[in-house]
């Protein structure tokens, strides 16, 4: 992970260069979307001291001297009481997972979150920002749906290239798997995610009603003009 901590403009160190070379050898010249997943290093676990120092640096601009000093004292109490015990638990979790944060972050930040999804979590797309390709909303919506489902096909065939830092260091692509065919089922305290192997329809919300609109006929994607009808 050395490349992540280098200052901008500095030459890449020997270890990151060696890692880049291994990636090129094992991933090949034309890697597919998920071909690098198994060679990604585990998310590094910072030490307790490092975590506390980063926390104190983060809150320093927010507090006056008196409030900051109280925070420093509380951080020291945490370190000398339950801090090391929690750090050991976290270390065991780090040993057994490639990313010790993902499942907790998803569950407690997203799936237990009760703030409005549309403005806080959901992604969205626009067909154009500075121009208006067509006056009919159905035509524009049909083109967006068609383009999105063509992109889904590219993902399923792994034709989308994996993200690479410095054109050589692969980044995790696992979230692409749930970009489509995935739904969040509401729960009383915690929602849960369901992912389907395939889906041939979209859900359309219009005037307080939901509609199920099929996008395929005999396993063939409908053209934009057909979707518009």
Automatic annotation (TrEMBL):
Residues 43-228 form the Choline/carnitine acyltransferase domain. GO terms for cellular component: mitochondrion. It holds the Pfam family Carn_acyltransf. Keywords: Acyltransferase, Transferase. It comes from the Eukaryota. GO terms for molecular function: carnitine O-palmitoyltransferase activity. The keyword Acyltransferase applies. GO terms for biological process: carnitine metabolic process; fatty acid metabolic process. Belongs to the carnitine/choline acetyltransferase family. This is Choline/carnitine acyltransferase domain-containing protein. It comes from Rotaria socialis.
């Amino acid at each position: 992970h050395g490349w992540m901590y280098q200052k901008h403009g500095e030459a890449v160190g020997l270890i990151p260069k060696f890692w880049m070379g291994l990636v090129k050898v094992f991933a090949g010249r034309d890697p597919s979307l998920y071909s690098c997943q198994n060679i990604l290093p585990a998310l590094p676990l910072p030490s307790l001291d490092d975590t506390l120092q980063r926390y104190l640096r983060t809150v320093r601009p927010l507090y006056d001297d008196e409030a900051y000093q109280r925070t420093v004292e509380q951080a020291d109490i945490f370190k000398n009481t339950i801090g090391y015990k929690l750090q050991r638990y976290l270390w065991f979790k780090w040993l057994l997972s490639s990313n010790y944060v993902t499942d907790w972050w998803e569950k407690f930040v997203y799936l237990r979150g009760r703030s409005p999804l549309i403005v806080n979590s959901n992604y969205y797309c626009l067909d154009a920002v500075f121009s208006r390709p067509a006056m009919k909303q159905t035509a524009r919506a049909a083109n967006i749906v068609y383009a999105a489902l063509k992109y889904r096909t590219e993902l399923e065939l792994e034709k989308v290239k994996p993200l690479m830092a410095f054109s050589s260091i692969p980044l995790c692509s696992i979230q692409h798997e749930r970009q489509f065919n995935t739904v969040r089922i509401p729960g009383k305290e915690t929602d849960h995610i369901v992912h389907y192997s395939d889906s041939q329809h979209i859900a359309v919300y219009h005037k307080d009603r939901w509609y199920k609109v099929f996008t395929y006929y005999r396993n063939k994607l409908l053209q934009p003009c057909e979707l518009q009808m």
